[in-house]
């Protein structure tokens, strides 16, 4: 080997190798790297059948009651963006994780990690936004914690929230319940949150204002459950977008999924932004949408109930579960071809939640 040959051992790239010996941004992106970290590091360390389900929230029985329990952390940059803030995200994200088990959120905890030097007025704005979002979602912030780290060791404000809620009797919603024949429904246009955050962060303009879809989905889920308790799977397609959410469900249930690409609702502003930036809208994060796997016999009634709710007005059937290619998601393109929709390695847009 020549003495001046480059040393590749310290090199990284936008799609790091999966055997990378150090944590990279992709490990927090909700894709394949995140899954490997959970599967090979956290799950073996923690163990237990409840964690093994790896759903948006855990369903546990305590004192005869079925509870959904979830926690999440928020490191979005910037703290404020069109359509929301880190405070809104912290409430709505946790409420939505509970709703994906069919539960109505009741109580939240909230932890503030503050960087030395951040303006108190900014902390107050975030706290006010968080409180307003909690009241709008009908949930109480019941406990919390505050820590401060030295200047240069944070990014202004990080938040952590945990939530609990009651799961109604007869409701069993989890990724493993998807079966061939299920209809796949998305509650509305995708990609708005990721593009909204990116536009502010990078100072980009796409000819029209793009606002985050950040919203609490508990009421929409209640409207769906009022039609039938037999919703098989619900998932909010946040990090990794629609592609990651559907891919995780297919893998957990061992079913194939066929999506109709033209049926996936992509707003023109999102399509244009993604075309300019070389992104795929199906991998862009959402914060106020859900994807549902519903028995075919119930699909029309569930779709009608979703469209009658303000947060489901743009709901659309986008695909179905099949026996073929178990664990794999494919999309039928507008040209009549078929492409594989892989689980993303990391995340196209980091730090969006």
TrEMBL record:
Any single Pfam family the record assigns to this protein: AIRS_C
Domain PurM-like C-terminal, residue spans: 180-325
Annotated GO biological process: protein maturation
Domain PurM-like N-terminal, residue spans: 56-167
InterPro entries: HypE, PurM-like_C_dom, PurM-like_C_sf, PurM-like_N, PurM-like_N_sf
Gene3D superfamilies per the UniProt record, alphabetical: PurM-like C-terminal domain, PurM-like, N-terminal domain
Family note: Belongs to the HypE family.
Listed name of the protein: Hydrogenase expression/formation protein HypE
Top-level taxonomy: Bacteria, Bacillati, Actinomycetota, Actinomycetes, Kitasatosporales
Gene symbol of the encoding locus: hypE
């Amino acid at each position: 080997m020549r003495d001046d040959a480059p040393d590749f051992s310290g090199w990284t790239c936008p799609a790091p190798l999966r055997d990378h010996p150090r944590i990279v941004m992709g490990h927090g992106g909700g894709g394949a790297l995140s899954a490997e970290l959970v599967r090979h590091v956290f799950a073996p360390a923690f163990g237990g059948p409840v964690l093994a389900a790896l759903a948006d929230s855990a369903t546990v029985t305590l004192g005869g009651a079925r509870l959904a329990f979830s926690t999440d952390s928020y490191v979005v940059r910037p703290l404020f963006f069109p359509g929301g803030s880190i405070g809104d995200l912290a409430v709505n994200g946790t409420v939505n994780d509970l709703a994906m088990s069919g539960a109505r959120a009741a109580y939240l905890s909230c932890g503030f990690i503050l960087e030395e030097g951040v303006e108190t007025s900014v902390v107050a704005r975030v706290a006010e936004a968080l409180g307003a979002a909690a009241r709008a979602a009908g949930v109480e912030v019941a406990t919390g914690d505050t820590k401060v780290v030295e200047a240069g060791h944070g990014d202004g404000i990080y938040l952590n929230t945990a939530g609990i809620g009651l799961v109604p009797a007869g409701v069993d919603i989890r990724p493993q319940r998807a079966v061939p024949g299920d209809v796949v429904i998305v509650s509305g246009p995708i990609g708005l949150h990721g593009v909204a955050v990116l536009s502010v962060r990078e100072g980009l303009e796409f000819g029209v204002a793009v606002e985050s879809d950040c919203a609490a989905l508990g009421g929409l889920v209640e409207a769906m459950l009022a039609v039938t308790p037999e919703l098989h799977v619900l998932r909010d397609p946040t990090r990794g977008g629609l592609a990651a959410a559907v891919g995780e469900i297919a893998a957990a249930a061992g079913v194939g999924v066929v999506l109709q690409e033209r049926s996936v609702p992509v707003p023109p502003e999102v399509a244009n932004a993604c075309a300019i930036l070389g992104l795929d809208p199906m991998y862009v994060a959402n914060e106020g949408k859900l994807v549902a796997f519903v028995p075919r016999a119930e699909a029309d009634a569930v779709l009608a109930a979703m469209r009658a709710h303000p947060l489901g007005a743009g709901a659309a059937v986008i695909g179905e579960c099949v026996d073929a290619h178990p664990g794999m998601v494919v999309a039928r393109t507008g040209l009549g071809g078929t492409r594989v929709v892989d689980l993303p390695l990391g995340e196209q847009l980091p730090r969006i939640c």
